[in-house]
Amino acid sequence: MATMAELARTHTGLEEDELEHLQRLVADWGMLSDFCFSDLLLFVPVAGAEGSRFVVLGQIRPTTNQTLYGEDLVGRLIDEVERPFVARAWRVGEIVEGEVMVTSPGERARLQCIPVRRHDRLLAVMTRESAPTVGRRPGELERVYVDTFDRFARMIVGGEFPYGSEGPPTRDAPRVGDGVVILDQGGRVEYDSPNAVNALHRMGMYSNTEGMRLDELGIETQAVDRAFTLRIPASEEIERPEAIVALRCLPLLDGGKVTGGVLLLRDVSDLRRRDRLLVTMDATIREVHHRVKNNLQTISSLLRLQARREPVGSGRTALEEAERRIRSIALIHEILSRETGDSVDLNEIVVQLVRVAEEGVFSNHVAARFRVDGDGGILPADIATPLGVVLTELLTNAAEHAFPTGWDQPEGAHVQVSLHSDGDVLSIQVHDNGVGWPDGFDIAKTTSLGLSIARSLVVTQLGGTLETRNDSGAVSELHIPVRMPAE
After folding, report:
1. All structural domains of the chain with their residue ranges
2. Which of 324, 319, 323 is nearest to 309 (CA)?
3. Considering the domain 346-487 in this protein, what is its CATH number?
4. Is the model's pTM score more than 0.70?
5. 403-420, pLDDT tens digit by residue?
6. Residue range 124-151: average pLDDT?
7. pLDDT class of 485 with cuts at 50, 70, 90
8. Separation between Cα atoms, residue 198 and residue 235, nearest integer Å
9. Nearest of 336, 442, 319 to residue 388 by alpha carbon
10. Cβ neighbours of 367 (radius 10 Å)
11. What DSSP character marks residue 333?
């Protein structure tokens, strides 16, 4: 399905700032839909149709009532024969009400068409669509909510809603169903919903609220003062021993003057306790990685000291190789001890492993240049740890065997590491311009311990493939499936 911006650019003549105004409206109109217990649709004239044809750019269903539409109408083109009241509201620039046939023959809906303005320019028509109410007297909550919606509707017609300098509400922002307090122009309580009363009780406030300011009730909040003074929404959280309550105050405007406010309340105690628990767990995990890294570095140092005491030969070489493998695992735990979560940036790992490999080349008195290109993305730790060992073996193999004594290449020695990830498969290629693999080399049959370890980890633990070939030097290429961390 095309996005709102794509539909607007395809069918309408909206400028970028006008489209942004409508996007801000759509970002916050879930509140409006809940206040009026109705579906909301956004109609924008098709370019060149002179208000006789419209495209539906937005649609939202209420959480406080049953929807009229089981289907998605976004992107549908309609004409004034199908929605005559929309066309009339567009032409007169005023709120128009009526009834229209909507979902099936014989079923009608009440329609309120609200022109959407930005400054002095008419941009769209927002419709409130609901089933007719026959023989039912609305209760106080419903009357207050619908009256609040009507006040926002007048702000939309006057270009005062959405608020120009506010971003979309956050994921944890309070909603209408969480609790609503209606304030007069002096910030005094005119009405509070049952859920709002529950939230106030959690904060320790049990007295009658009607006609009182929140600070007179013992609730010190700056959100109401900021919203009324700056004429834009303001949010804050109030923490009490019993509860943590999120507040969002939206000023009600008429001709630029504040006539009241809507205060949305949500008890976020459980959310904040969960967040703090996650922070604590994350700090604990990072501390564990830090201690594991320290222990591995201690083992690495002991192996290095032991290797220095051994005479040159197979024993010393084995200790040095073991020390190098342990150091590569310690490097990954060091990165994990600095990062939040249990994932790491592969590029950061590769850069540090390359530095270790460069030391090996330097010890062979070969001035080789290492280069890393591409992006391997973010990897979970259970993939990054064995992959780090594999890359260590491949880079070390290139450093120690690609450029033997007496080897000469006019363009100089270089090793290139190429990374690529499409989100499903990670591909890594290590390509040097050295002497290449021996004739008939088969990594599946190699007697080299390092390459055997690398292939075993790739195939059995990472579920991937490792292939080698010659191409102006030695090429090692591995492909592994990856499970990208959730956002």
Report:
1. 4-157, 176-267, 277-341, 346-487
2. 319
3. 3.30.565.10
4. no
5. 777 677 667 788 889 999
6. 88
7. very low
8. 19
9. 336
10. 10
11. H
What is the SS3 assignment for 172? coil
* Alpha carbon distance 238, 241 (integer Å): 10
Pair 162, 58: CB distance under 8 Å = no
Q: Cα(7)–Cα(5) distance, rounded to whole angstroms?
A: 6
Please check whether residue 431 is in contact with residue 418, taking contact to mean a CB–CB distance below 8 angstroms: yes
Cα separations (Å) of 22 from 47, 73, 109, 162?
A: 16, 17, 24, 8
Give how far the C-alpha of residue 182 lies from the chain's centroid of Cα atoms, to the nearest Å: 32
Q: Please tell me the CATH code under which domain 4-157 is placed.
A: 3.30.450.280
Given this chain, do its domains 4-157 and 176-267 carry the same CATH topology? yes
Bridge partner list, 468: 476
The pair of three-digit structure tokens given for residue 3, joined into one six-digit string: 């996005």
Q: Are 384 and 344 in contact (CB under 8 A)?
A: yes
Rounded to an integer, what is the distance from CA 117 to the centroid of its chain?
31
Interatomic CA distance for residues 263 and 438, integer angstroms:
75
Runs of H (alpha helix) within 206-258:
223-230
Distance between CA atoms of residues 132 and 60, nearest Å = 19
- How many Å is the Cα radius of gyration of the chain? 33
Instruction: Quote the mean pLDDT of the chain.
Output: 85
Domain 176-267: state its class. Answer: alpha beta
Give pLDDT, residue 148: 97
| Token code pair at residue 73 | 């109408």
